[in-house]
Write a structure and sequence with these properties.
This protein has a single domain, classed as Glycosidases (TIM Barrel, Alpha-Beta Barrel). Helices cover about 40% and strands about 15% of the residues. Strand 14 and strand 15 form a beta hairpin. The radius of gyration is 21 Å and the shape is globular. Bound molecules: 6-O-phosphono-beta-D-glucopyranose (BG6). The site of 6-O-phosphono-beta-D-glucopyranose has 11 residues, from loops. 6-O-phosphono-beta-D-glucopyranose binds next to loops.
Length: about 450
């Protein structure tokens, strides 16, 4: 087992969030609507307690206070995103108020020794782009590259770490194979095209980054779930390979290795699901990232289907999910907790992906009705979160000891944030936000615990 408790020098200790989940001010200072704003206006009952993106922790006005809280906790890095619809409200015209806000926000972090890690897209499609077809329109590749260029030019002197996307698989799956994201389409062929355009937009943004002569680093953030098979039986192993191919390799191989998995291409061809390629496909695919962000929450457990589907309607036509009897659950959110998954991902990146530099860009524990854990002093006694983080960090340390190139750990999230259709149902933060009391921020027990870990750069167990 592990022999060291010490994290590497300059290890990133931080937290992650996104613009649409924290900023609020959704129609202030020239910002145009996103799909979330429009959806909430049309159908508020789709959102938990009808709370929409206009009611977040109001970072747009309170970022200075929040950056001080980061500093109080010893954080040395922080990830958030830029809202495309705020920076370019019509896709073309730069919004100077947005530029001033983001510059000051990022500079405030830098002044306090906190590395800003800035992501370009976290599920928040501008409505003007949605009206042009959103991810289905190949023109989005150019629109996105232009947005990226503006962001790099306006903030590149302050921001040295960029991500093109957060969890692109989520806007593909939830928007085009389900109904949790707009436009709530259910069509595998369209989902594949959307995924393809997303990949091309990623490459185009990386290309622009190199072209503008930046001196920082660029990567992307993927949600990677290790896929475990029920058994060693060949049919379960095959189910595992298919699930891994669609959920992991479909994006990770092109992004990290600049190749497309040939088994995936073959099956898409066989089922007439190949996307229409854009002209620049071959040369764009050569663009390389500098680092990878990995969001890890829970694994995927699969088994062979009883009857193999004759048509490929969605990836899960090729496997069934499997309920592992030894599964440990987060009783407050309903997701599996499997700490070793973080180690398995680390080893996979080391062995199959050239040990590219990477960091945990999200990991965390959502808790519904977390107010039940507030004690008489007003502090959430989130010992379950401390245990969760400690156990994941312990496996992460073991992987680092075995040569993994992991350079940081960001918790989802810093201050409880608004989360899409779930709004404030599940709380994840080191800080609690009080929606009834002027959005007051109160540290949870975990924030004090982590502050000490960061100070020593060492895990106490
Ligand atoms: C992550 C996303 O996967 O899950 C976040 O990147 C999201 O944007 C988080 O808020 C938590 O999701 P939920 O559904 O538990 O609120």
């Amino acid at each position: 087992m592990r022999v060291t408790n010490q994290f590497p020098e300059h290890f990133w200790w931080g937290a992650a969030a996104s613009a649409p989940q924290t900023e609020g001010a959704s129609d202030v200072d020239g910002k145009s609507p996103t799909t979330w704003d429009v959806w909430h206006e049309r159908e508020p009952e789709a959102f938990f307690n009808q709370v929409g993106p206009d009611q977040t922790s109001d970072v747009y006005h309170r970022y200075r206070e929040d950056v001080q809280l980061m500093k109080d906790m010893n954080l040395n890095s922080y990830r958030t995103s830029i809202a495309w619809a705020r920076l370019l409200p019509d896709g073309k015209t730069l919004n100077e108020k947005a530029v001033a806000y983001y510059r000051d926000y990022f500079q405030t972090m830098r002044d306090k020794g906190i590395e800003p890690v800035i992501n370009l897209f976290h599920f928040d499609m501008p409505w003007w782009m949605m009206e042009l077809g959103g991810w289905e329109n190949p023109a989005i590749v150019e629109h996105f590259a232009y947005y990226a260029k503006m962001a790099f030019e306006e903030f590149g002197d302050i921001v040295k770490y960029w991500a093109t996307f957060n969890e692109p698989m989520v806007h593909i799956e939830c928007g085009y194979l389900g109904d949790a994201h707009w436009p709530r389409v259910n069509d595998f062929k369209r989902a594949i095209q959307v995924g393809y355009h997303t990949l091309m937009a990623h490459f185009a943004a990386v290309r622009v980054y190199r072209q503008v002569g930046s001196d920082g680093k660029i990567g992307t953030i993927l949600n990677l779930s290790p896929v475990y098979a029920r058994s060693d039986a060949p049919e379960d192993q095959e189910a595992q390979r298919w699930a891994d191919l669609f959920h992991t390799r479909s994006l990770l191989d092109p992004i990290a290795l600049n190749t497309y998995p040939q088994e995936l291409v073959a099956i898409l061809k066989e089922h007439d699901l190949m996307p229409t390629l854009i002209d620049d496909h071959a040369s764009l695919t050569q663009e390389k990232i500098d680092f990878l962000g990995v969001n890890y929450y829970q694994p995927l457990r699969v088994k062979a289907r009883d009857e193999k589907a004759l048509t490929l309607e969605r990836p899960s036509s090729l496997y069934a999910s499997y309920d592992w009897p030894e599964k440990k659950m987060n009783p407050y959110r309903g997701w599996e907790i499997y700490e070793k998954g973080i180690y398995d991902i680390a080893m996979r990146i080391k062995n199959d992906y050239g040990n590219i530099p990477w960091f945990i860009s999200e990991n965390g524990m959502g808790v519904a009705e977390e107010e039940r854990f507030i004690d008489e002093s007003g502090i959430v006694q989130d010992t379950y979160r401390i245990e969760f983080i400690r156990d994941h960090l312990s496996w992460l340390l073991k992987s680092i000891e075995e040569g993994s190139n992991c350079f940081g750990y960001h918790l989802w999230t810093f201050i409880d944030c608004w989360s899409w259709l779930n709004a404030y149902k599940n709380r994840y933060g080191y800080y609690r936000v009080d929606l009834e009391n002027d959005l007051e921020r109160t540290p949870k027990l975990s924030s004090f615990w982590l502050r000490d870990i960061i100070e020593k750069n060492q895990l106490d167990i």
